[in-house]
């Protein structure tokens, strides 16, 4: 749970164990936060009301920050770093929603993301299979 986007940990591990190694990193996200928190709704919230929503805000912010850092270190795709992330407009973005309906919705969303990013996935596979 501490590494909501573990891509930077993967980068750090390779940099530590193989200094100077050429890297190719594909980061596959689990879905972007989609619930807005309008000021009118949250302006009177105290600690109790913020307890759960703030976790989502922090997790999303950390994942986005790691994406920016890795783009700076490795360069955005096409290149050496790709991030596949989607917004969860049809599926619930609750981390604990393992209901059959939500799992089906998540699967559909993942299949659409893979289709939309097929060119990027083909490029990554090509680079991996060529040994580049």
Largest sheet: 2 strands, parallel
| Number of E strands | 2
Query: What is the rounded Rg?
Result: 17 Å
Order of helices and strands: HEHHEHH
Low-confidence stretches: none
Number of DSSP helical runs = 5
- Report mean pLDDT, rounded to a whole number: 87
Biggest sheet: strand arrangement: 1-2
- Beta-strand portion reads 5-15%
Rounded to the nearest angstrom, the distance between the terminal CA atoms is: 33 Å
* Helix coverage percent: 55-70%
Into how many domains do the coordinates divide? Answer: 1
Q: Please tell me what the overall shape is.
A: globular
Structure description:
The chain has 132 residues and is mainly α. The protein has one domain. It has 5 helices and 2 strands. It has a two-stranded parallel sheet with strand order 1-2. The radius of gyration is 17 Å and the shape is globular. The model has no long low-confidence stretch (mean pLDDT 87).
What attributes characterize this protein structure?
5 helices, mainly alpha, globular, 2 strands, 132 residues
How would you briefly describe this protein structure?
The protein has one domain (7-130). Helix content is 55%, strand content 6%. The protein has five helices and two strands, in the order αβααβαα.
Question: How would the blueprint of this fold be written?
Answer:
Blueprint: H1 7-17, E1 25-28, H2 39-42, H3 47-74, E2 81-84, H4 100-116, H5 118-130
